[in-house]
Structure formats: C-alpha cells, structure tokens
Predict the 3D structure of the following.
Amino acid sequence: MTFTAPDTLDHAALEEGTAFAPRFDAAGLITVVTTEADTNAVLMVAHMNAEALSLTLETGIAHYWSRSRGKLWKKGETSGELQQVVELRTDCDQDVLLLTVEQTGRGAACHTGRKTCFYRRAVVADGSVTLEDTGLPRLLDPASVY
Amino acid sequence: MTFTAPDTLDHAALEEGTAFAPRFDAAGLITVVTTEADTNAVLMVAHMNAEALSLTLETGIAHYWSRSRGKLWKKGETSGELQQVVELRTDCDQDVLLLTVEQTGRGAACHTGRKTCFYRRAVVADGSVTLEDTGLPRLLDPASVY
C-alpha cells in the first residue's frame, strides 16, 4: 500500500483534502494514539513506519514500529493482546494518527498488564508534583507473558 | 516547578513509582495527547517543554510549545479557546502525557474550527487508501480568529 508524499500537497490539500499523506518524521515514523472503541479511553501511544501502517490497514490488526527493539511490532504477538482495528483517523496536518481498536485478549494494552499505559495521575501539592496510582488492576501477570 | 530527572530512576521507579520524571526528548519536548473530559474524545496532540508543563500545572490552563512557531503557546490566547485542566496523567515509561481538559470558548480545539483535529478517517478500497471527512462542523471561522 502506498501513501501520498506530503510535499506534493499544498496546505489546503493536506488539511482538507482526501489524499492520505502521513507525515513520517526524519526517522520514518509517525506518532499513533490508540483508543478503545467502546470507551474512547486512550490505551497507549506508539509509532508506525510505512510498513506498520500498511500492515495495519491491510490486515485490520494493529502493527507498530518498536523504537526500543528497532523492529516491526505486531502488538500482542507475544502476549496475545492483539488489537482489532475499528477506525484510523489522521489529524489536520497529518503528522499524527488516531487508531481506534477493540483490545482483545485479557484487555491489557500496557506491558505492565494494565488496560492502559496511563495509570498514574500527577498531583500538585505545596508547589511540587508527584504521581498517584489510579488503581487500575493488572489483567495479566507480565512476568508470565513477556 | 521542578521535575525528577529520569536518569536518576531505575526501571521500576520510572514505571511504578511516585516520582514524576517526564522524559523530554533531545529537543526538550514531550508529546501530549489532549482529551475532552466529558466524552474522552481525543482533541489534539501537541508538545510541551518543561516551562509549558510547569505553567499548565500551576495555572490549570493548558500551555504547549509550538514547534512551528518555536515559542511557548498558551492554547486559546488568540482564539479564546482556552483549555481548563481536569487531569494530567503520564504513561508507563513517562515519555507521553495525557491531558484531560474542558475545552472552553466555542469548543474548537482545532485551528480549522472543528472540535478535534481528527476529523478525517482513512478508507481502504481496492488496495488504496484515501481520507473521508467525518462531517464535524466548524464551530468558528478560522479566517476571523487567527
């Protein structure tokens, strides 16, 4: 699957047009926000290269590029927590993707075993800031999965 | 407001601890996903530097770093579309922030006048992909605001 080269589009076409021209960065990656279809909850933020994006669109299963491992990452291939694609959107200037999925398996998008990676909130007190656990349960035991 | 330096934390402290150690990138920026409190809708994705993050936490009004303009960006200062902070979360490895807000003004987080920047979806047909407008109305006229 091929995508339109962003530099072939003018500003109006990039922001209002029908050409899909993902603006991969210098490393060939684009930021992806993944949300859960039923709740709109943000599950994770990751990256895709062109191959991962193509595979995601072609197979209906989320594929990313793992920056830490430097390789294509079929989410859930090890853990069983595959993500089925419901919808893919892009933003106004096409440098971010919004992927809506149904999280399969035990429902743990995060490698810590929680539903979402965003399980801690910032709390400000006396001019300093700390994190507080929001209490999300672990849906799987990472030690037994990874 | 000061933040913990990520390199002073071990892996467990970074992922499970109470120290807030945002992992700003080489340019001093961290990716921020901004969602609407009532609906969980993803409104936009932007970046903060340490100053923008401090101001956001101290004032309760979202501040970002504009990469295109190379300056601090109090969201809505020009348009009136300020964002009131409801909650700020970080992810497992603290390199992304999730900001939940009440979008004030006319409710247009996107500079195109729409509620969200994610107003187009990808549609695959015959092996190629195009964008389709999801029909979000313009809540303000960009030409009269910016």
